[in-house]
Amino acid sequence: MNQISVQELAQRLSSGDVSIQLVDVREPQELEIASIEGFVNLPLSQFAEWGDQVPNLFNPQAETLVLCHHGIRSAQMCQWLIAQGFTNVQNISGGIDAYSVLVDHSIPQY
């Protein structure tokens, strides 16, 4: 599975590339604490509610970056997306925790 660093994520976000698909698999209560603008929230615990909608929500050929707290849940989502035929999926290494430490200190840690 491909990985992208939080520094690379910051560069991609600042480039304004609208073709990137951004998915955050954290829980709603986690988003209330810390979030990055532009990500679509698909809580992994609610998979049964959104799993069958993914092909309609996202382009399987477009670059898809997946975020969670530390990178474990997002890795699971990446594996699932690849199994669904997504061809350009990247896990954000270290998750929002690393992003708040290494890129944007205004994002709270939890």
UniProtKB/TrEMBL annotation:
Pfam families: Rhodanese. Gene3D superfamilies: Rhodanese-like domain (3.40.250.10). Coiled coil: none annotated. SUPFAM superfamilies: Rhodanese/Cell cycle control phosphatase (SSF52821). SMART domains: RHOD (SM00450). Residues 16-108 form the Rhodanese domain. It comes from the Bacteria. InterPro entries: PpiC/parvulin_rotamase, Rhodanese-like_dom, Rhodanese-like_dom_sf. This is Rhodanese-related sulfurtransferase. It comes from Nostoc favosum CHAB5714.
